[in-house]
């Protein structure tokens, strides 16, 4: 079974029909075979923050999405802990040459710890770190 990390851009693309990655995000899962998705509290915070000022409809869509992500058995949400925050912050501080967000750093640590090599993302930072960004082709 493939274990795949889902990043913010993937989740946002699934709910925004005008997003340039919407179609790819909606069509990729059936092509992956048997899989399990890992995401994180930090990613979900980014999803909700990204639409917070876009009006009530996008906010409702994002809230419904997060509700749908919370329950399925094939999706695991890694909680934000003080330890993960500190480790992500250390990576963030150690790499001033990169444009990695704190959430990126936490995602990378989760992926490294679980030996995950693929991410549902178009974010080039994942490729920069050595992972396969599945929405980049």
Describe this structure in words.
This protein is of the alpha/beta class. It has one domain (2-136): 3-Layer(aba) Sandwich (Rossmann fold). It has seven helices and five strands; from the N terminus they run E-H-H-E-H-H-E-H-H-E-H-E. The chain has a five-stranded parallel β-sheet. Helix 7 (124-128) links the parallel strand 4 (118-120) and strand 5. Helix 1 (8-15) crosses helix 2 (22-31), helix 1 packs across helix 3 and helix 3 (41-51) runs antiparallel to helix 4. The radius of gyration is 14 Å and the shape is globular. The relative contact order is 0.20. The model has no long low-confidence stretch (mean pLDDT 94).
Task: Summarize this structure as a short list of keywords or feature phrases.
globular; 137 residues; alpha/beta; 5 strands; 15% strand
Task: Based on Cα principal axes, name the global outline.
Answer: globular
Going by helix content, strand content and strand pairing, the class is alpha/beta
Number of structural domains: 1
Any idea of the CATH topology? Rossmann fold
| Main β-sheet, spatial strand arrangement | 3-2-1-4-5
How much helix, percentage-wise, in residues? 40-55%
CATH arch. level architecture: 3-Layer(aba) Sandwich
* Spatial gap, N to C terminus: 21 Å
Order of helices and strands: EHHEHHEHHEHE
In DSSP terms (H or I, runs of 4 or more residues), the helix count works out at: 7
- Give the overall average pLDDT: 94
Radius of gyration (CA) equals: 14 Å
Strand content: 5-15%
Number of DSSP E strands: 5
Report the uncertain regions: none
Give the name of the CATH superfamily: 5'-nuclease
Most strands sheet: 5 strands, parallel
């Amino acid at each position: 079974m493939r274990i795949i990390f889902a990043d913010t851009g993937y989740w946002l693309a699934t709910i925004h029909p005008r997003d340039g990655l919407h179609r790819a995000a909606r069509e990729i899962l059936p092509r992956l075979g048997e899989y399990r998705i890992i995401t994180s509290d930090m990613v979900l915070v980014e999803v909700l923050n990204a639409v917070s000022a876009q009006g009530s409809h996008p906010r409702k869509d994002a809230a419904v999405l997060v509700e749908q992500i919370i329950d399925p058995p094939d999706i695991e949400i890694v909680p934000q802990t003080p330890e993960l925050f500190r480790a992500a912050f250390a990576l963030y501080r150690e790499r001033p040459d990169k444009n990695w967000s704190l959430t990126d750093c936490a995602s990378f640590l989760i992926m490294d710890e679980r030996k995950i090599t693929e991410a549902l993302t178009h974010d080039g930072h994942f490729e920069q770190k050595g992972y396969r960004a599945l929405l980049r082709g």
